[in-house]
Amino acid sequence: MAATTDPRPAPLAERAASAPVAGAAPPHAAGVAPMTSYDVDMASGRRTILLVEDEPAIAEPLAETLTREGFHLEVAGTAAGAVEAAGRVRPDLILLDLMLPDGSGFDVCREVRRDSQVPIIMLTARGDEADRVIGLELGADDYVVKPFSAREVTARVRAVLRRTATAAAPAGASDANAPVEVAGVRLDPATRAVTKAGAPVEVTRKEFDLLALLMRSAGSVVTRERLIDEVWDVNWFGSTKTLDVHVSGLRKKLGDDSAAPRYIHTVRGVGFMFAGAGGDGPAR
Ligand code: CA
To answer: How would you class 274 by CB atoms within 10 Å of its CB: exposed for 0-12, middle for 13-18, buried for 19 or more?
Structure first.
């Protein structure tokens, strides 16, 4: 999933070398923590979470709860430290505060996304809708709004890990891994690549999952509820606006026009439908 090359631009990476990294701990201790049934289901040992948060009053109780829940925690208090730690420990998930002393969580998100698809959950301030939209467009997977309970964050972490584990399930089983092509758009679950008329289209993981679901049902409406349940989680307690942000991101990347969509049609009050079967012209 993640390439090993490391083409980071100088500024953050250089600062990282001297940045303090709180809570440095040995990577991936053997899975000795008490396991919940979920962990047993995941069955591949302890998961490492990189918590990026500069406020001890938030970071400490959260780290404590997540550790008690069986996760291995790595904590960074700066943007530079976060980028450094992400490259060093290769976490299974990143919890990312946006306001950091030496920069923004968006920079961290952008840097990390250069070579990694690690799930990222943003920790955002209440009412900062714009922040969430930017973060999701930069490839964050989800967000929680401050103030949050450690329990809420833990639930979200588990949901995101469960979802990404499903998305990364090994090939071989079922049609879920067969490439789909509709109206010149081709999606290959094995490589998670999307092309339009042969040209690559860069999409985030959520956009990929969303597109996959829509394309597999091309010609029929997929309800908002089903999209949220399957691409996010049945227990999703965020705004359904997230779905609209992702649809609009996909449209932009596919060169689609929401006023006269060619690929993703809005069925008002119900859901979305990928390019009606039959009536489509040649791919642009
Ligand atoms: Ca902060």
So the answer is: buried
